[in-house]
Amino acid sequence: MLINSLFFHAFESICCSKIPKMMLSNESLSAPTSSTTCFENGSYTVEKKSVPKSSSSDTPNPPLYIVYPTEKGTYPVILFLHGFSIPNTSYSSLFEFIASHGYIIVAPGQTLFGLFKGLFVASAIGDVDDAALTSNWINKNQGENLQRELPSDVSPDLENVALAGHSKGGKAAFALALGHAYTSLKFKALIGLDPVEGPNTANRIEPKILNYIPQNFNIPLPIALIGTGLGDDGRCGFFPPAAPWGCNHPFFFNECKPPVCYFVAKDFGHMDMVDDWLAWLSGMFVSKTGKGSYADMRRACGGIFVAFLKTYMFDDAEDLSTIVDSPSSVVPVKLNPVLWLQS
User: Which domain of life, per UniProt (predicted)?
Assistant: First the structure.
């Protein structure tokens, strides 16, 4: 089923009746009064490294993929959880774009056993537990574990940490924020990139977090949701939709309390923000893909990450306001809807 505008008009009406203050995309005939560079490559040089699993207490479990700026400084951290059996390294282009704007990205991966377990066990409990292990590893002794993996003059800012995830990892991020596993790390913001609750409403995987009750999530964080317009379309008869209706982004949005931002890349699919080789492979066999540029989709997602985090980490809402006011003027892909519920 394709997401249609009638649903969103109804959805917006529901939101307006329940939330007193909101900003909607409402482009006028006049040009925007400001511009944004969040959809362009940032000014920082970026490096990346893999940190393997080890039995040592000073190394992470699960293995990690870390992308970071190389210039001297202290940078906010994003803990990013990968989708169902998707290698954490296959988000490298997206991660490098975000890191070029001054962010350290830590992405837990999975062992070979974890990969096969993920293919056959319909549960996200292990993903949530791994995310908690990684967050506690990051936070141990005021960040010394993560600092050890970075250049000596590059430091993590543990006062500004965001939790994010794609697909099943988006669900796991919400589950961690809801307290389904313990973490000593305090998060400043939550971002769901086309999160998925399960294969269908009758088979939602554990831990079940959607209750289909408006504003039901007890998450004391600002939230951004980035959905895809083609995610609930199956590729062919052999594979169901990657982000099926009833388990996908509008239903996560329905349960979020403000402040929350909501953007849907109308003409793109569930895997169109990963690296080109996997987006192409997935589009051939697994999930429907859009006709636009994968690079543009990554820039759109990365730019929204940057604008949202600037707003809620550094009290700089200029870029986010520009996106909401004039999305077609600044965003490299078409967004519909564009919502920012503030209170």
Answer: Eukaryota
Q: What is the mean pLDDT of the chain?
A: 87
Domain residue extents for the chain: 5-341
- Architecture of the structural domain at 5-341: 3-Layer(aba) Sandwich (3.40)
Phi-psi region of 246 (alpha: psi -120 to 50; beta: other; left: phi over 0): left
Q: Using H for helix, E for strand and C for coil, what is the string for 61-121?
A: CCCEEEEEECCCEEEEEEEEECCCCCCHHHHHHHHHHHHCCCCEEEEECCCHHHHHHHHHC
| 242 Ramachandran zone, left/alpha/beta (phi>0; psi -120 to 50) | alpha
Q: CA 300 to CA 322: how far, in whole Å? A: 13
- Which residues are designated catalytic? 167, 194, 270
pLDDT one-digit tens code per residue, 236-259: 556 788 999 999 999 999 999 999
pLDDT band with cut points at 50, 70 and 90 for residue 121: low
pLDDT digits (tens, 9 = 90+) for 46-71: 999 999 876 555 666 678 999 999 99
pLDDT at position 186 is: 97
Rounded Cα gap, residues 79 and 148, in angstroms:
17
Contact (CB, 8 A) for 220 and 169: no
Strands 64-69 and 46-51: what pairing?
A: antiparallel
Q: Give the HSE-up count for residue 320: Cα atoms under 13 Å, Cβ half-sphere.
A: 25
Nearest to 115 by CA among 133, 136, 132, 130: 130
At position 48, the amino acid (one-letter code) is: K
What does the DSSP assignment read for 23-37? EE----SSPPS----
Per-residue exposure over 292-321, b if at least 16 CB sit within 10 Å of its own CB, e if not: bebebbbbbbbbbbbbbbbbbbeeebebbb
